[in-house]
């Protein structure tokens, strides 16, 4: 018999890495569907879906962007303006990065997701990564670093970030890997913000606007 073409041989003899990735993907899809207990009104925890959607809004980009911009306009302290301006920069950076990655990966959302999300754009039909998870990790790290909070409040900030992230899987919006990568990306983006920290010395034109 004639030898098989090389590309067919590769398909018939998948690599160990390919098998491992396929197995992990299958586990991810299975576990995410099992954990989507609030994906619909008829789901196991369907009665908790309205509460999960409130949590969803708390991690949405629009309230954070509008709230930060409003605080920046109302602030009369130079130190507060510097922190708020960098928070605004962090939120915009997060929005751009998530949009770019979603557009490149183009992973569809879980089949059990209901497209009733709060204010979406075209790229939001994709799932990877979770923008809520990136934002939660980024904001959490930013707040803990730049706001003086009592220990109970610091714990609440961390719990909020975790609950927002978990709610993405419970609502059926994302698979677990979407959320995990989102948390890692958000954590890393804060380091970028710190490295590019805006101040009156390196960005005088921005501070002159306020």
UniProtKB/TrEMBL annotation:
Annotated membrane topology is: Multi-pass membrane protein
Is ATP-binding among this UniProt entry's keywords? no
Its transmembrane ranges are 12-31, 84-105, 147-167, 179-198
Name the Pfam families on file. PAP2 (PF01569)
Compartments where found: Endoplasmic reticulum membrane; Nucleus inner membrane
Give the GO cellular component terms, alphabetically: endoplasmic reticulum membrane; nuclear inner membrane
Q: Name one GO molecular function term.
A: sphingosine-1-phosphate phosphatase activity
Alphabetical UniProt keywords: Endoplasmic reticulum, Hydrolase, Lipid metabolism, Membrane, Nucleus, Transmembrane, Transmembrane helix
GO BP terms, alphabetized? lipid metabolic process
CDD domains, sorted: PAP2_containing_2_like
Which reaction(s) does its UniProt entry say it catalyses? (2E,6E)-farnesyl phosphate + H2O = (2E,6E)-farnesol + phosphate; presqualene phosphate + H2O = presqualene alcohol + phosphate; (2E,6E,10E)-geranylgeranyl diphosphate + H2O = (2E,6E,10E)-geranylgeranyl phosphate + phosphate + H(+); (2E,6E)-farnesyl diphosphate + H2O = (2E,6E)-farnesyl phosphate + phosphate + H(+)
Q: Where is the Phosphatidic acid phosphatase type 2/haloperoxidase domain?
A: 83-194
Please state what class of enzyme this protein is.
Answer: hydrolase
UniProt-listed Enzyme Commission number(s): 3.6.1.68
Q: Which family does it belong to?
A: Belongs to the PA-phosphatase related phosphoesterase family.
Name the record gives this protein: Polyisoprenoid diphosphate/phosphate phosphohydrolase PLPP6
Q: Which organism is it from?
A: Tyrannus savana (Fork-tailed flycatcher)
User: Per UniProt, what is the name of the gene that codes for the protein in this document?
Assistant: Plpp6
């Amino acid at each position: 018999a004639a030898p098989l073409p090389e590309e067919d041989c590769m398909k018939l003899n998948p690599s160990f890495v390919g098998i491992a990735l396929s197995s992990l993907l299958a586990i991810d899809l299975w576990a995410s569907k099992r954990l989507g207990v609030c994906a619909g009104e008829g789901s196991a925890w369907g009665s908790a879906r309205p509460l999960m959607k409130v949590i969803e809004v708390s991690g949405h980009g629009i309230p954070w962007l509008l709230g930060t911009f409003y605080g920046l306009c109302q602030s009369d302290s130079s130190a507060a303006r510097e922190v708020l301006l960098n928070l605004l920069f962090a939120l915009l950076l997060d929005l751009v990065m998530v949009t770019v990655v979603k557009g490149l990966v183009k992973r569809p959302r879980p089949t059990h997701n209901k497209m009733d999300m709060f204010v979406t754009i075209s790229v939001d039909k994709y799932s990877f990564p979770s923008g809520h998870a990136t934002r939660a990790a980024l904001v959490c790290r930013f707040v803990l670093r730049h706001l003086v909070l009592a220990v109970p409040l610091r714990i609440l900030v961390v719990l909020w970030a975790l609950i927002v992230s978990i709610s993405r899987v419970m609502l059926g919006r994302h698979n677990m890997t979407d959320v995990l990568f989102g948390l890692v990306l958000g954590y890393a983006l804060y380091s970028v913000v710190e490295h590019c920290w805006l101040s009156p010395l390196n960005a005088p034109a921005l501070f002159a606007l306020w």
